[in-house]
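For the sake of clarity, the format in which proteins appear in this thesis is described at this point. The fold follows as a row of integers, each naming the local backbone shape at the matching residue. One such record is shown here in full, so that the layout can be seen directly:
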Amino acid sequence: MLKLRSLAVLLAVCCYAPLVFAETASVSISSPLDGVKLDPKVRCRVYYDVTLGPKGHHAHLYLDNKQVAELRRIKDSYTLNSLALGEHEICVKIVNKAHKPIGVQQCNKISVEQEVLKFEESPTLIHGH
């Protein structure tokens, strides 16, 4: 009976362990969403969620192909400094201990634009006599 119980425990551990280690790596950027337009006066906060998987150690945040931060938490946010007007690409990439990307990432394209006021009618000038 003891051997049978030991075998059951061994099988449970062996069958469960691959499930734990087989977790696949993934990255999700929940904000800003792909294609969003931002006001240049508002600071851009990047919200992310990372599953490191067996090869990942931490993540890096990139702005326009330049690393701007190391992300040590798997779910958090990071505020970028003010962004210049124009198109930008924000990427979160999972990296190994040597800081090399493992190929799992998400990139969102955003644009920073000045608000353009549009008038439905031209202003009317009133002249007094």
Observations:
- The domain at 24-112 is CATH 2.60.40.10 (Immunoglobulin-like).
- The first strand starts at residue 26 and ends at 31.
